[in-house]
Amino acid sequence: MVTWKEVSRAQPDLAKKGEDLIFQYDVGLAFLATLRSDGAPRLHPVCPVLSNSRLYVFVMPSSPKLRDLTRDGRFALQTFPQPRPDSDEFYISGTARLVTDTAVSAAALAHAKHHVSPDELPFEFLIDRIMHTKWEGFGTPAYHPVHEKWRAPVTNSTAAANDAGA
After folding, report:
1. CB within 10 Å: which end of the chain, N or C, has fewer?
2. What is the dihedral of CA 44, 151, 98, 51, to 10 degrees?
3. Which residues sit opposite 78 in a β-bridge?
4. Averaged pLDDT, groups of 10, the chain, 166 residues long
């Protein structure tokens, strides 16, 4: 898993496409999929925040997504559709981590472009996979998606965790 900053270094064009789509309405907007305790998916609209080249989302204490993310941090994030039929799409998956550092939390809060309640808790998105989809040939029989995919490199610590069953 890597931070958004590491994605931006490794894949600057892909990161730029993602930022443009996440923040296409100025405030960050996306759908967040989490896993309920019974393993079923749950979908929520969220307002992602980019702060110091890291990607966050703030979660209300009473939200089911808080329980989901603290129990099992796996997530998928899909950008809101654009207002045209051949709109691009951007997808991220990975693990969300609760931010406990008050300085990091304060910085993310300061960079939020939407109202954040003081009791909301910040989670940072650590990224495993990204997919950008561009649609080509709209309105023709040749209409098709073109996918640009990226996966975080596997490090020795990641490989060791996977071998240990993590």
Report:
1. C
2. -90
3. 31, 91
4. 97 97 95 97 96 97 96 97 83 98 96 95 98 91 94 73 46
Q: What is the pTM of this model?
A: 0.88
Which amino acid, one-letter code, is at 76?
A
Are 106 and 118 contacting, i.e. CB atoms less than 8 angstroms apart?
no
Quick one: 4-160 is in which CATH superfamily? Electron Transport, Fmn-binding Protein; Chain A (2.30.110.10)
Rounded CA separation 120/79 (Å)? 22
Domain chopping of the chain, boundaries = 4-160
CB atoms closer than 10 angstroms to residue 81: 13
